[in-house]
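Q: Joint fold for the lines below.
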Amino acid sequence: MESSKFKIGDKFFKSRLIVGTGKYASFEETRDAIAASGAEMVTLAVRRIELDKTKESILNFLDPKTYSFLPNTAGCYTVKEAIMTCQLAREAGLGNMVKVEVIGDEKTLFPDNEATLEASKVLVKDGFQVLPYCTDDVVLCKKLEDTGCSAVMPLAAPIGSGLGVCNPFTIKLIREAVKVPVIVDAGVGTASDACRAMELGIDGLLMNTAIAGAQDPIKMAYAMKAAVECGRQAFEAGRIPKKLYASASSPIDGLIDI
Amino acid sequence: MLLKINGIEKNISSSTNLAELLLELEIVSPHCAVALNQEVVPNSKLKKTKIHDGDNIEIVHAVGGGL
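A: Joint structure:
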């Protein structure tokens, strides 16, 4: 049974899982894990070419006919760096859909929300489809939507922390407050985290470390694919409410009377 | 002329524009992008963009990365 389709900007996806391409042991493992995850969009970073070596490119392992690319501004601490990175990514042929992250703190890698908002405004005007990585702040997400971002990407927990969704209430509030897709990004640790996140009613989920850092990344990729699908289906199916007292599942009529 | 390319000082002898520079550096990747003195140069303008002594050039490409 299929769940509803997922639209971000001008793109449609069957999979609600977006994955990163970093931290894998090899390009081959990257390719195989991404295939196992069923993801149709992958993030990429933009870095200096190494001048004195001829290195293989990750793009040799990812078919642009199969995957949409989402270049990110990972490592950027300023508005200018983030804007320039997106412009370079577009010039390098990676498309105009970008994940904007402007980091505010080295230890937690928490985003600098002010800078993210500022960079997003400039990039939207420059024709980019902006997916901003931000904290789970409802007011901020509304502001990002108002600047014309194509989605909002509140974090579940710090990047690579594996804590899962720390505050499901704010994530739910964000989903209620904005009309653009809500893609929870960062902090997922295992399949149940992914499932729970999707059950909150979010539109998509982005992860990297949870798969690449697992002891068996390919197996975890399969698990995450299933978790995202099942969490979304459970949400669309509409769960029963939580109650304090029991509510019998079997009928009272027809009970024997001894 | 002395250029700073990807943070490293290099002496460039024959190239006069960015397109020639990429060839001289043997960069053939179709998926790279160039910034000259902190401004991104469209690939269509690489041939027309001249380089001068003291220029700061960044040549980038896509790598694996998530968050």
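Q: Anything notable?
A: The helical segments of chain A are 27-37, 79-91, 113-125, 138-146, 168-177, 191-199, 209-212, 217-237. Residues 6-237 of chain A form a domain with the TIM Barrel fold (CATH 3.20.20.70).
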